[in-house]
Amino acid sequence: MEHNRRCWTLGAVLLVVIMGSSALTRGAWAQSHYENLHTFKVGANGYFPESALVMDQAGNLYGTTADGGGSLNCGNQGCGTVFELTPGANGKWTEELLHSFNSNDGEWPQASLIFDQAGNLYGTTYAGGAHGAGTVFQLTPKSDGTWTESVLYAFCSSIIRAQCADGSSPLDSVTFDQAGNLYGTTAAGGSNSCSGLGCGMVFKLTPNSDGGWHETILHVFQDHPGAKPEGGVIFDALGNLYGTTIGDGQTTFGSVFEITP
Prior knowledge:
The chain is mostly beta strands. It contains one helix and 15 strands, in the order H-E-E-E-E-E-E-E-E-E-E-E-E-E-E-E. A four-stranded antiparallel sheet has the order 1-2-3-4, with no helix packed on it. Strands 5-6-7-8 form a four-stranded antiparallel sheet, with no helix packed on it. It has a four-stranded antiparallel sheet with strand order 9-10-11-12, with no helix packed on it.
């Protein structure tokens, strides 16, 4: 009986704690505040943002839209944009168009952006570029407030899309190492099959002394055990890279991988 009473007492205390925690959680959500900072509309300023935002030290927000922009090279929907949202003293946010893609310099950016220490922005486009298979780009701020875009690398050196040994169709952002090299993935390309478009790869871009960038292929995926990486990569303290693949959807259904230098 004494043992049962102790159990009931402990159970009652746990029940009170759980109910109290639940009430606190509901109360916290009840006190949260939602505010719409900007609504995109079909047009030149961009629409269909598909990636996360990045914030600078002044509190401004930066992102990409997969469609929109002033160019008609990608059809009526546009080739995508890079935008900035700036908070005002009245609590309202103002959008500024930093770059409108025109297919030649990239098309359909679907990844978030990253900053370097100098305040330049870096990202990828899923398509477009010199070979139509996507790009890695840089946006550099100018003294007059405008930004200049540079294509660091255009994927698929072959005009035949099924022979993109250097990768094609990057879907996520790039990441820096401490030496200033960029790392990322492409969802297609490489020398292996995956419906003839390649299974994707992990790449490294190294800056050259002449201002250009050189690509090094770190890994080319196969049908097994993983294929088609659509996410980026991250580093651990030892310099190993980690990422995911979605698989081919028929015999493989995704994986988590590590690449060790």
